[in-house]
Amino acid sequence: MSQPSLLSEIKDKHHVFSFMQSQASPVLNVDKQILLYLEGLSVSFDGFKAINDLNLYIRDGELRCIIGPNGAGKTTMMDIITGKTKPDTGSAWFGQTINLLELDEPAIAQAGIGRKFQKPTVFESLSVYDNLVLAMPDERLVFSLLFARLKGEQRDRIDEVMTLIGLQDHSAMRAGSLSHGQKQWLEIGMLLMQKPRLLLVDEPVAGMTHQEMDRTAELLVSLSGSHSVVVVEHDMDFVRQLAGKERTVTVLHQGSVLAEGSMDQVQNNQKVIEVYLGESQ
Amino acid sequence: MLLWNLIKQDRGGQILLALLALAIIIVPILNGLPSDHPLHIPTYMVAVMGKYLTLALLALSVDLVWGYLGILTLGHGAFFALGGYVMGMYLMRQIGDRGVYGHPELPDFMVFLNWDSLPWYWQGLDQFWFAAILIVLVPGLLAFIFGALAFRSRVSGVYLSIITQALTFALMLAFFRNEMGFGGNNGLTDFKDLLGFNLQARETRVGLFIASAIALALGYLLCRSVTQSRLGKVCVAVRDAESRSRFMGYRVENVKLWVFTLSAMIAGVAGALYVPQVGIINPNEFSPLNSIEIVVWVAVGGRATLYGAVAGAIFINYAKTWFTTELPDVWLFALGAIFILVTVLMPKGIVGLLRRKEGNA
């Protein structure tokens, strides 16, 4: 918030300050079966175009894998969707009614977009249980947080998620002392608690064993349908496992979509092969 | 019942509250003994101990924002001093015509400056209830405005620490000016009585000691109830992974703003109890060094435990009193040495040592 606009806010006697306004955003509308619209997005950092005229549509309930070499703009795209970065041009809509570019990170999270980071980020000095409690979407206002108590069904939900992510025996453990893989699971569990409509998952299987990868794939597939899931991943085996025969895979390159289609189509696409294998024509 | 739940699993808190209760009973009795009795506590010692308790309350307020929320505030002395100044103004108004110049309404320094009437901001402060409201309101309001600007523009880390230093430094310079109407560099002093009780009287000193002990106990319970609530968990979450909590939908700036404001209010109460026990408030209380010293108390006691801040504040201030009477030249070196030793050998402070013995560090 720049100073001049703050001054004009104060001078206007009818102005309702943003901290007094309720944060409720318009109701999500997915009549057209599309949950996320990214159109003509561009953003550059110091002249480097991280995202260049990116167009991407995610259907409601879809599981979409996004692959691309390093620097393709995958993380920047997630930053834009979650409000961390504002694009120079273009538009980003969540359903037909919610303009993501007008909202900040907490508002976007409350609207129903959850994000899992590449590096597992859990609240290290809190217990596993408390990490899940905080992820619950119910209480976000300072004063209701002060008096918040867990209800029966919320406890059941936490227990359910804790069993699902295999941490039921570690509920009192500090999240910081979990193993790398367990932290990944805890973070996925936190996303589940948050009950987002759209899940953005950045490299979920980094540091996981093959067994754990299979379980993660199973979980993500089971989530699609009721949620839309966007997975950014480097591990091709994992992407193949997730995408199966019919799901769409998007290849990003230099900030825009290079190819889109089933895994087989994408793998046989000449441009994709060039980018990945560095073959010259 | 509710209170017991708050400290059920808090050994340190239980010990602290028990010690405070004990002090409230024992100190008046020992002070009442004849002065040649070996267990007699002289009245000046009661006032010194009362002063420690108010400083402990100040340390508590810093631990709330630094220990739990990760805001390294280097300007909390400002809120303490503001609370102290409000109390000082009330005490000045109580002097009435007993000042050196015998003016019925104006404090001595205003007569000296040839002022003919009270400035508007001195109005109403002859009423204790009004002063009591301002003691929490003035520091709270300053913290709110400061926090709204700083936290909304996402100033954090070392930059925020520097701004808090600037805040207290600016206030110190302002309060040094005679035109401000707060007594300039002499500050406010020569207090006579509080709520009709003579401040020099033994009973008043003991009463202030008891009030400080109760304020510290209530302050502890208040901070504990915040840190044990889900809000307290969110604070720790913000401290450890600020952007993660944003992506989870928490308005980090509001959490910081309200907890910071609450902490400033507690610091204001501490300042208000401090002033009648030391008998003076002057702009040196705003000095940036004071604020840094508070952080040292908390670090020495042990961060993010609340009772550690109390222990640290009392320990360091006792050491300060001892050194400045026995070895005055050594004090600053000793303080530096304590700080270095604690940071190197006991990163979790004094209470970290005790906890390790218990085996649940």
UniProtKB/TrEMBL annotation, chain A:
A GO MF label: ATP binding
Region forming the signal peptide: none
Protein's UniProt keywords contain Disulfide bond: no
Domain ABC transporter residue range list: 36-279
Gene3D superfamilies: P-loop containing nucleotide triphosphate hydrolases
Matches recorded under SUPFAM superfamilies: P-loop containing nucleoside triphosphate hydrolases
GO cellular component terms listed in the entry, alphabetical order: plasma membrane
Protein name: Urea ABC transporter, ATPase protein UrtD
From TrEMBL, chain B:
Coiled coil: none
GO terms assigned for molecular function: branched-chain amino acid transmembrane transporter activity
Keywords assigned by UniProt, alphabetized: Cell membrane, Membrane, Transmembrane, Transmembrane helix
Cross-referenced InterPro entries: ABC_transp_permease, ABC_transptr_urea_perm_UrtC, LivM-like
Membrane topology listed for this record: Multi-pass membrane protein
One GO term describing the cellular component: plasma membrane
Listed name of the protein: Urea ABC transporter, permease protein UrtC
